[in-house]
Amino acid sequence: MGEEPTRDRIVRVATDLAESDGLSAVTLRAVGSAAGLSRGAPYRHFRDKSDLLAAIAEQGLARIRRAILNSDPSLDPGQRLSAALSAYVATARAEPVVYTLIFSADLATDHHPELVSAGLDAYNTFVDLVDELLHDRDASRSAASKLWAATHGALTLSLAGHGTKEKGLDDIDALLRELALAVLAMPRGT
């Protein structure tokens, strides 16, 4: 295994810094220093902090996509969908700052087309998985959008400390399994 490319090292170190100290701690100079590079080295790879944050978010979306893809293909499609949703949740919980950044209004996606592309890749991977169950692309896209939004909403509430038992949000995996079954049982076209 070769040496990690400098750009990848910068993004990895920036991700670790964001998770440990928050996004405000992520500056190009601080990341360069923490990566064992000159303080100016990140400027050769990123125009500004926004570019670096977009790269962090892009890699976070790639990890979500891999989590969805890595759901066990030997499971029946319904179990595989539940496993994929659980993997999505676990990935977000492992990196809550990155997850929040991915969906942050602070990143203008019109300035970061690679971030838009990574988001579409993750979402379309999820649609493909749902399509294994429904075998109808339009119905799959409709069901996937509902589940994607519900997953994001439940995770956002949980990460913000609002995933309480009183609200029925203490077990997101169980909630998402129930939602998946309900959405998949909906008549087509709703």
From TrEMBL:
InterPro entries: Homeodomain-like_sf, HTH-type_TetR-like_transc_reg, HTH_TetR, MT1864/Rv1816-like_C, Tet_transcr_reg_TetR-rel_C_sf. Coiled coil: none annotated. Residues 27-46 bind DNA. Keywords: DNA-binding, Transcription, Transcription regulation. Transmembrane segments: none annotated. Pfam families: TetR_C_33 (PF13305), TetR_N (PF00440). Residues 4-64 form the HTH tetR-type domain. It comes from the Bacteria. This is TetR/AcrR family transcriptional regulator. It comes from Frondihabitans cladoniiphilus.
